[in-house]
C-alpha cells in the first residue's frame, strides 16, 4: 500500500477510535518575533517561528507530564512517556510525513532548527529511516505559512495530542498604560488548537498544558533555561 493509502487508513481509524477533545487558545506572538529577530541580529542565528514553537511545546509537555502520555489499550489506562519526542508534520509529494525531534525539551532552539531542516529534506526525498518518523510522543502541524487562521488536526495514534498552529494576524487590543488608562495597541495573535485524546486529556490536563504553553510565549526567556 502506498504512503497516502496508509495515512488515509490511519486517519480514519484515529477519528473513529480516539475520542477527540478540542481546545483552542490564541497567543500573542510579538515576544517570540522580537526574540527571533534578536537571535538573528545579535548572534547571527536564523530560526523559524516553528522552531521556537517546537521548543515551547516540548517544555510545556515536560512541565505537564500527564499530557505527554498515550492510552494503553491492553491495560486500559494512560501511560506516561519517558521522553518528549515531537513529531513535525511535513508535506511531501507522497503524502504527509512526521519526522521526529527526539528529546526536544533538552535541545537548544538552534539545534532543533538544524534538525528540522535535515529531517524535512530527508522526508521530501523519501529517505527517512523508520526510527526517524515512528514513535513520537506528540505532534505539531503548522499551517502558518498559508492563509489559515485556525484548524483542527487529527491525532496521530498512539499519540494523545496534536497541536494545530495557524498564521499570525495583527489585531487591535486594549492595553493598560502605566498611568492606568486604557489605550488601543496593535499586536500579532496566533491561534493554537489542541486535538487531544479525551482518555488522556480531561479539561484540567488540557488547561494546565495551555497555561504552561502560554507562559512560554509571553515570557520567551523561559525557553533558554
UniProtKB/TrEMBL annotation:
InterPro entries for the chain:
2-oxoacid_DH_actylTfrase, CAT-like_dom_sf, E2/Pdx1
Q: An example of a Gene Ontology BP annotation on this entry?
A: pyruvate decarboxylation to acetyl-CoA
2-oxoacid dehydrogenase acyltransferase catalytic domain mapped to chain residues: 2-224
List the GO terms this entry assigns under cellular component, sorted alphabetically. Answer: mitochondrion; pyruvate dehydrogenase complex
Q: Which GO terms describe its molecular function?
A: acyltransferase activity, transferring groups other than amino-acyl groups
PANTHER family in alphabetical order: DIHYDROLIPOAMIDE ACETYL/SUCCINYL-TRANSFERASE-RELATED, DIHYDROLIPOYLLYSINE-RESIDUE ACETYLTRANSFERASE COMPONENT OF PYRUVATE DEHYDROGENASE COMPLEX, MITOCHONDRIAL-RELATED
Q: What is the protein name given in its UniProt record?
A: 2-oxoacid dehydrogenase acyltransferase catalytic domain-containing protein
Q: Which organism is it from?
A: Triticum turgidum subsp. durum (Durum wheat)
Amino acid at each position: 500500500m502506498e504512503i497516502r493509502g496508509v495515512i488515509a487508513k490511519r486517519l480514519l481509524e484515529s477519528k473513529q477510535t480516539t475520542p477527540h477533545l478540542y481546545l483552542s487558545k490564541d497567543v500573542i506572538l510579538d515576544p517570540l518575533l522580537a526574540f527571533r529577530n534578536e537571535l538573528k541580529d545579535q548572534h547571527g542565528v536564523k530560526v523559524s517561528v516553528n522552531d521556537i514553537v517546537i521548543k515551547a511545546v516540548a517544555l510545556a509537555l515536560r512541565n505537564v507530564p500527564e499530557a505527554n502520555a498515550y492510552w494503553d489499550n491492553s491495560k486500559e489506562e494512560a501511560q506516561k512517556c519517558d521522553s518528549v519526542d515531537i513529531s513535525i508534520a511535513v508535506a511531501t509529494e507522497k503524502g504527509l510525513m512526521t519526522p521526529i525531534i527526539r528529546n526536544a525539551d533538552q535541545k537548544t532552539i538552534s539545534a532543533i532548527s538544524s534538525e528540522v531542516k535535515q529531517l524535512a529534506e530527508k522526508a521530501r526525498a523519501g529517505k527517512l529511516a523508520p526510527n526517524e518518523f515512528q514513535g513520537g510522543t506528540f505532534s505539531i502541524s503548522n499551517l502558518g505559512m498559508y492563509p489559515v487562521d485556525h484548524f483542527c488536526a487529527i491525532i496521530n495514534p498512539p499519540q494523545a495530542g496534536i497541536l494545530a498552529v495557524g498564521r499570525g494576524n495583527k489585531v487591535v487590543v486594549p492595553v493598560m498604560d502605566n498611568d492606568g488608562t486604557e489605550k488601543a495597541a496593535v499586536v500579532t495573535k496566533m491561534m493554537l488548537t489542541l486535538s487531544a485524546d479525551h482518555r488522556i486529556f480531561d479539561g484540567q490536563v488540557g488547561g494546565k498544558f495551555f497555561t504552561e504553553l502560554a507562559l512560554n510565549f509571553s515570557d520567551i526567556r523561559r525557553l533558554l533555561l
